[in-house]
Amino acid sequence: MTSLALGPSWLDPDYLLGTFGLAGLLIIVFAESGLLIGFFLPGDSLLFTTGLLVTTGKLDTPLWLVCVLVVLAAVLGDQVGYLFGKKVGPSLFTRPDSRLFKQENVEKAHEFFEKYGPKSLVLARFVPIVRTFTPIIAGVSGMNYRSFVTFNVIGGTLWGAGVTLLGASLGNVEFVHKHIELMLVAIVLISVVPIAIEFLRARSKAKKNPPVSEGPGGQATQRGGRHAKR
Is 40 helix (H, G, I), strand (E, B) or coil? Predict the structure, then answer.
């Protein structure tokens, strides 16, 4: 295994697993799933690497047990995020930026939640940063708790067990072993694709529907001087 040089060495999946083992993995999954400080953690690549290490025998824990524990950590993390959002409420949107907290991350998660509703809890699992803030926004928005638990379990299972099993299924492929850095980079890039797609869609929509402003006499017009359709 080689190191993934995309950031600090202490964020490298191989280093994290080699240093902190399964316990460290579960703490990271829990933190990234619903704690404000967990948004920068490498969840996707970490789960993929875990599955690969289990298959190759470098992580001496049964694959089924790893998957069960990861899913539990992911679901519990979201539960904490939901309860935190419900308690903090609207004050989260007025909290000043800091080194570990950016208001734009809250806004992105809020827009994501508003667009996709309850199923955003499933989709957000596969979107870095957004997956950390979405359960918190669900709590802020007062989402029905029973619905939250249902979608939380579905999302936590698909992401936690799914990405881990993907790493395990590719663990015996020679190409993966020879190009582990490439595979981890691919996982990171794929996880960013949903964000890129949403950004491009929003940009395209903004171009097709320019802002409406009031013209002379209070009549609504679009940019370019044309009267807006009523």
Answer: coil
